[in-house]
Structure prediction request, 257 residues.
Amino acid sequence: MASKEQRSDQILGMLDSRHFMSIGDLAKSLDVSEMTIRRDVRDLADAGKLRAVYGGVASLENGSTVSGYNAQTERSQHAEEKRRIALAASKLLTPGDVVILDSGTTVQQLAECLPADGAYTFICYSLNTINVLAKREETTVISLGGVLSTKSYTFSGPDAVQAMQRYRANKAFIGATGYELKHGLTCSYVEDCSWKQAAMQCSVERILLVDSSKFGKVSTCSFADVDDFNTVITDSGVPDRYRIDLETKGLKVVIAD
Prediction:
């Protein structure tokens, strides 16, 4: 087993590229117990070398958000592609489904594209999406609470993640700010990583909604590998090398047109 100094160097090295890692992922990568990793992380945080956040650790360099990201301005970006992706995603839902909805404007459009009839149960932490779902008389909406971000309009915090872990769902629709072949799926907010990971773990089927502008981009925080998903829904602008890579990994790729 590596020495504590060696593990510390390895932890900081992984954070340099991924910016966020869960305690479980660190323990698996370094082949030690989670208790050992928690002690290492505590000492590194006390030394000011990283930030301990709920569910894992984050690098100091990137802070908690990507500069300039705002849910309201993001909605107008690539709006037509997002609408088509949302329509394609809505066709995967069946009345009676229990569904986890991530944050993001594409997921919000999925809520707006739902058929008028049909009873569903949605577990959600995005205020904008909750407001859309609240207008549906037959729909049950489970809000996980937490602290509201005025930039992303999402609730976050340890209580919300713990609540999520008590639920189970048929499907989870997850968004991403970027997907790059080497660095995987990334999002803008450290606080969202634990929520996304918990949502994926609690769902039978995991569906990624990502418009073609996100391919080749890297955002602040790494939260998953693309092959953690079953299905990817994107638009016709997806670069060929990314589409081929997704299909080679065994994912179902839906091109919304």
